[in-house]
TrEMBL record:
UniProt organism field: Salix viminalis (Common osier)
Membrane topology, record value: Single-pass type I membrane protein
Compartment(s): Cell membrane
Binding sites annotated in the UniProt record for ATP: K380
The protein's name in its UniProt record: non-specific serine/threonine protein kinase
Annotated signal peptide: 1-24
Length: 674
């Protein structure tokens, strides 16, 4: 049974071999005038145009295109007839149209191969048939005639337009520059493979003489009598029983469109001549201009101009972004002058996410200085060029020299057109009023409140008595007291501050400050003194102890004005009834009474009756005994408050003299952003 099966399989195999042999004999020759309807084996990017034009590659970089006759042809010399020689002849018409004039690549290779599967083959100089590892292997059984338009020194190419004969390798065994022998003129004429013109190529191999001839001519010429290459070659060890014939083409860093217009082949004799009139036409070519280099130069120049324009615009925008006002007289303030570029980067371009707060006089941003990695608060204030700018900056710089543990440090400034930027130490816990008056934040205990009052009082002593000049703050209130990381109170916002020498009385200029904190004499005369700061501090003390603002219109009439209400409660013996209920009785009674009574004492309407800030510190520290308060209420508290004033907190700035630098109100709150 097994023997019968083997015999049957042998007969079947023999039958298939005979059929293939018959098919091969039938296909020993063929001719194509265009390839419309042809059953060629196409792969990679090769395609056939509707008019029958075979396009192996287009102008895409580093691509491969192949087209092979669909059946293998019989090249064996041993099957049935050992004496039969194998010779072949072929003619094809090709055209290589470069992407750029006089600059094309790579080329076309007419290929005889045992397979149409070229796994791992590379483009460019390898023509899509080999790679660096397979190049030169005798197992390739490969014959190729290459039309190469790019020199490859590694492959020993002779020039940039040549024909080469390759056996198992793309290093040609013989090659020659492309020329055409003119039978009429009896001389060779040079041809360019990448002229875009159609040319004919003939390949003839005679096994008896073991000679391979390659001939090239323009399509308008007949086949020359003298071939371009005539090379002795024994292909008996190269050819296998059956071989595929066809074309493989590739492009490299530069590219050409590679076309085959017609193809004739004969395995056992001379190939039929192609009829030029029956060939398809090439696609229309763009006519090169009178100056082809302009196709490269014009886009390059345009790109350079565009790049310069973009760079110039970026420079102008960058310069405008960081532009500052800087005058010669500011050189002496160098250490206190910040560059706008540094502040812009510190605040991430004054991004909204860095905004700490805003008010009627500007916006406050958190920032980190790039040079020192130090956190700061940057206040942007509207600012116009005005008389006294130099004096104004001088006062800012002077405030920058103030040094006290309970003063917010003014680090410096920067000026731009229409804008002034003030740089301060960053206070992570914001302003005191946010913790006093907002129910959604933790409430300060009494120990912390008392410590804050002592700190602010100490800062005012420094401003009034201990610095080289007298500094009047003129806007002491809870919203201008900032809290550091440890909840220590620091007096800030010197936007309304005024300087004068010790021993001199400042001239009346204007009414500045906040309703509810203004001393009566300031509202009458516009004259601010250290006593008016004491009055504001007294109101501030009551504000901290009672947990409410100085004027609240929504309260019952007798409680609208904080100072008057506390005084009336003191007269009735119920002063502790004014204490902030959110303290829940957790306070030292003696300290609380001291703060409430000292607050009333500081709000005497007569300036001379008020204690100095140094005396206030002594009372708070327990180093002096607080005097008794008068029972009559006419000497304590605010002047009558109008319904408009009672409607809320307002900063007043009423100019009296245009020469007064302090009339440039930078306030409502430098750091808290109120």
């Amino acid at each position: 049974m097994i023997a019968s099966i083997k015999i049957l399989l042998f007969i079947l195999g023999l039958f298939v071999s005979l059929k293939l042999l018959a098919l091969a004999k039938e296909e020993n020759q063929f001719i194509y005038h265009g390839f419309a309807g042809a059953n060629l084996l196409l792969n990679e990017i090769a395609k056939i145009h509707p008019n029958g034009l075979l396009e192996l590659t287009n102008t895409s970089k580093r691509q491969i295109g192949r087209a092979f006759f669909p059946f293998p042809l019989q090249f064996s010399t041993s099957l049935f007839n050992n004496s039969r020689p194998f010779s072949f002849s072929t003619q094809f018409v090709f055209a290589m149209v470069p992407e750029l004039p006089s600059l094309g690549g790579q080329g076309i290779a007419f290929t005889v191969s045992p397979s149409v599967n070229f796994t791992g083959a590379l483009a460019a100089e390898y023509f899509g048939i080999l790679n660096s590892k397979t190049n030169g292997l005798s197992s390739n059984h490969l014959l190729a005639v290459e039309l190469d338009a790019v020199p490859s020194p590694d492959l020993k190419d002779i020039n940039d337009t040549h024909v080469g004969i390759d056996v198992n390798s793309v290093i040609s065994i013989d090659s020659a520059p492309v020329t055409n022998f003119s039978d009429e003129e009896k001389e060779n004429k040079s041809l360019s493979l990448i002229s875009g013109n159609m040319m004919s190529l003939w390949i003839d191999y005679d096994e008896v003489e073991r000679l391979l001839n390659v001939t090239v001519a323009p399509i308008t010429s007949t086949k020359p009598t003298l071939p371009l290459l005539s090379t002795s070659l024994n292909l008996s060890s190269v050819m296998l029983d059956s071989m595929y014939v066809g074309f493989s083409s590739s492009t490299g860093a530069v590219a050409s469109s590679h076309y085959i217009l017609g193809w004739s082949f004969n395995r056992s004799g001379q190939a039929q001549s192609l009829d030029v009139s029956k060939l398809p036409s090439l696609p229309p070519q763009r006519k090169p201009g009178r100056k082809p280099y302009l196709r490269i130069a014009v886009p390059a120049i345009a790109a350079i101009i565009l790049l310069l324009a973009i760079s110039g615009a970026a420079y102008i925008i960058r310069r405008k972004t960081y532009e500052e006002l800087r005058e010669d007289w500011e050189q002496e303030y160098g250490p206190q002058r910040f560059s706008y570029k540094d502040l812009y980067k510190a605040t991430k371009g004054f991004a909204d996410r860095e905004l700490l707060g805003s008010g009627g006089f500007g916006m406050v941003y958190r920032g980190v200085l790039p040079s020192s990695n130090m956190q700061v608060a940057v206040k942007k204030v509207s600012h116009d060029s005005m008389q006294g700018t130099r004096e104004f900056v001088a006062e800012i710089v002077s405030m920058g020299r103030l040094r006290h543990r309970n003063l917010v440090q003014l680090l410096g400034y920067c000026r731009r057109k229409g804008e002034l930027l003030l740089v301060y130490d960053y206070m992570p816990n914001g302003s005191l009023d946010k913790l006093l008056f907002r129910n959604d934040t933790p409430i300060l205990n009494w120990v912390r409140r008392y410590q804050i009052l002592r700190g602010v009082a100490s800062a005012l002593v420094y401003l009034h008595e201990e610095w080289q000049q007298v500094v009047l703050h003129r806007d002491v209130k809870a919203s201008n007291v900032l809290l550091d990381a440890n909840l220590n109170g620091l007096l800030g916002d010197f936007g309304l501050a005024m300087f004068h020498d010790h021993g001199l009385t400042p001239e009346a200029t204007n009414v500045v400050g906040t309703v509810g904190y203004l001393a009566p004499e300031v509202t009458r005369t516009g004259k601010s003194t250290s006593s008016s700061d004491v009055f504001s501090f007294g109101t501030f003390m009551l504000e901290v102890a009672c947990g409410r603002k100085p004027v609240e219109s929504e309260k019952p009439p007798e409680e609208v004005v904080l100072v008057d209400w506390v005084f009336e409660c003191w007269k009735s013996g119920a002063i502790l009834g004014t204490v902030d209920p959110r303290l829940e009785g957790n306070s030292v009674q003696e300290e609380m009474e001291l703060v409430l009574k000292l607050g009333l004492l500081c709000t005497y309407r007569t300036p001379s009756a008020r204690p100095s800030m140094r005396q206030a510190v002594q009372y708070l520290d327990g180093n002096a005994t607080l005097p008794d308060l008068p029972l009559q209420g006419t000497g304590i508290g605010l002047l009558p408050v109008s319904s408009t004033e009672a409607s809320g907190e307002h900063v007043l700035t009423i100019p009296v003299s245009s020469e007064d630098i302090s009339s440039c109100n930078l306030s409502e709150s430098i750091l808290s952003g109120r």
